[in-house]
From TrEMBL:
Keyword Transmembrane: yes
Keywords annotated in UniProt: Cytoplasm, Decarboxylase, Golgi apparatus, Lyase, Membrane, NAD, Signal-anchor, Transmembrane, Transmembrane helix
Lineage, uppermost ranks: Eukaryota, Sar, Stramenopiles, Ochrophyta, Eustigmatophyceae
Catalytic activity entry: UDP-alpha-D-glucuronate + H(+) = UDP-alpha-D-xylose + CO2
GO process terms (BP): D-xylose metabolic process; UDP-D-xylose biosynthetic process
Database matches in Pfam families: GDP_Man_Dehyd
Region of interest called Disordered, as start-end residue ranges on this chain: 54-83, 108-144, 466-491
Cofactors (names): NAD(+)
UniProt xrefs under SUPFAM superfamilies: NAD(P)-binding Rossmann-fold domains
Domain annotation NAD(P)-binding: ranges: 156-456
Annotated GO MF terms: NAD+ binding; UDP-glucuronate decarboxylase activity
Subcellular location: Cytoplasm; Golgi apparatus, Golgi stack membrane
UniProt-recorded name of the protein: UDP-glucuronate decarboxylase
Length: 491
């Protein structure tokens, strides 16, 4: 020590350092010592402990980890410190979230086993097909038929968590097929398919068809698109993208895996029709820049794309199999309560004893088909050899006013008055399907009367109202669907 000290600072070796350099050196050493001692007292070590203990508290109380962990009890942290802190926290948060998910899964499994004591965990979806397994499934899920390998198809339903899609899923599952639902949950609702979740033949993929997806399927029912005016007008650009890019993506998939594809088009391709009723050969009367254009024109070009792929696909093995259904007004259980359609609005208003609102004089006519009839038609069309567009609807025609009176009569709430509001832009005066083609080519026609269908739909909304409390119907203006109504009001 003394040797080296003298080596650097002494004069015995005759190697004298210049006095100004010596002064600078001593200054630097002093400054370093000061920084090290300050760091020991206020350094990062205590902060890590404080931060993680506050995280544990927050996690215990809030149950969902996350953002409050990074607040450090409101203390300021030097800019380079939080990186180290949050790395460690992130790991802790992940662990906690994982633990919570595992606990929730265990809880669910427990509940299931109480409801179905014979279902052992791990027996569902393991590929063995025994009678006892069928029995186990029967206790957990609605009944499904058993199809041989050759008969069973793997079927993609885009928009399968929506109103029509979920009823189609129910029928395909009941027939014994494997069903993959792709839905972005914009107007789709998890509760519509909740009764199938976990079934070995069922899969729900939350995905937006505007992005490509790779799947192996035999048939594609392409329903994905918001279909009620307030919902499709909420984000018109997105609606156009869904009909164009979404349909292109599905056509690409269908072509690649050689799946037959059915597009659900719409009576809106006829616009405000000048001939009545509308046969498929009618080209329509659509305003290309009106408020409904994003949907109408989107579906029109989607039809165009279907037949472009069909004719460019070549002959024989490489040819594309396409089906196009033009769906007219449809109603039934699982209609979105905020879809702003006359059926749901009238029922919700009447059930709550509110006045029934009609836009315009109510002389505009509509024809309403019950959803079960539509699903039969879609499946018949898919499995037929007919390749041109087919109208699916109920020609039973009502004026909107008469329909409001019928709903009021069936709900048996005479307190509700019929109230008229100004007519909405581009609301078609008449819409009624000519279903000659469906009768001739598919042997299909509606079998459920509007009255019977309404009774079932009213029952559905009665239960919905009991569960969710008050529902305020959506007017004709663009509106965002409110998928979380049921959750937020229940808690
Ligand atoms: C229903 O309409 C009638 C007649 O227009 C009106 O007198 C009444 O206040 C309205 N009721 C409600 C609950 O809005």
């Amino acid at each position: 020590m003394s040797h080296s000290f003298r080596h650097w600072f002494g004069s015995s070796t005759g190697h004298r350092l210049n006095s100004s350099i010596r002064a600078a050196f001593l200054f630097i050493v002093g400054a370093l010592a000061l920084i090290i001692s300050v760091n020991c007292v206020f350094g990062r070590e205590p902060l890590v402990l404080r931060a993680s203990s506050s995280h544990v508290r927050g996690g215990d109380e809030g149950g969902n980890g996350g953002m409050q962990m990074l607040q450090h009890d409101g203390r300021q942290v030097e800019s380079h410190e939080p990186v180290l802190v949050s790395e460690e926290l992130r790991r802790t948060i992940k662990e906690e979230v994982r633990a919570e998910i595992l606990a929730a899964m265990a809880e669910e499994e427990k509940k299931r086993r109480q409801e179905a004591p014979h279902a052992r965990p791990g027996t569902l979806g393991d590929g063995e097909r025994t009678v006892s397994r069928q029995e186990q499934l029967g206790q957990l899920y609605p009944p499904t038929a058993t199809l041989s390998e050759g008969q069973r198809r793997r079927i993609l339903v885009t928009g399968g968590a929506g109103f029509v899609g979920s009823h189609l899923v129910d029928r395909l599952m009941a027939e014994g097929h494997e069903v993959i639902v792709v839905d972005n949950m914009f107007t789709g609702r998890k509760k519509n398919v909740a009764h199938w979740i976990g079934h070995p033949h069922f899969m729900l993929i939350v995905h937006d068809v505007v992005e490509p997806i790779l799947l192996e399927v035999d048939q594609i029912y392409h329903l994905a698109c918001p279909a009620s005016p307030p919902h499709y007008q909420y984000n018109p650009i997105k609606t156009i993208k869904t009909s164009t890019m979404g349909t292109l993506n599905m056509l690409g998939l269908a072509k690649r895996v050689r799946a037959r594809m059915l597009l659900t088009s719409t009576s809106e391709v006829y616009g405000d029709p000048q001939i009545h009723p509308q046969p498929e050969s009618y080209w329509g009367n659509v305003n290309p820049i009106g408020p409904r254009a994003c949907y109408d024109e989107g579906k029109r070009v989607a039809e165009t794309m279907m037949y472009a792929y069909r004719s460019q696909g070549g002959e024989g093995d490489s040819s594309m199999e396409v089906r196009v259904a033009r769906i007219f007004n449809t109603f039934g259980p699982r209609m979105h309560p905020n879809d702003g359609r006359v059926v749901s609005n009238f029922i919700i208003q009447a059930l709550q004893g509110k006045n029934i609102t009609i836009y315009g004089k109510g002389r505009q006519t509509r024809s309403f088909q019950y959803v079960d009839d539509l699903v039969s038609g879609l499946m018949k069309l898919m499995n037929s050899d007919y390749e041109l567009p087919v109208n699916l609807g109920n020609p039973d025609e009502y004026s909107v006013k008469d329909f409001a009176l019928l709903v009021r009569e069936l709900v048996r709430n005479m307190d509700s008055q019929i109230v008229h509001l100004p007519a909405t832009k581009d609301d078609p005066a008449k819409r009624k399907p000519d279903i000659t083609t469906a009768k001739k080519e598919l042997g299909w026609e509606p079998t459920v009367s509007v009255r019977d269908g309404l009774a079932k739909t009213i029952e559905y909304f009665r239960k919905e109202l009991e569960e969710t409390g008050e529902i305020t119907p959506t007017g004709p203006e663009a509106a965002r669907p409110q998928p979380h109504v049921e959750e937020s009001k229940r808690s």
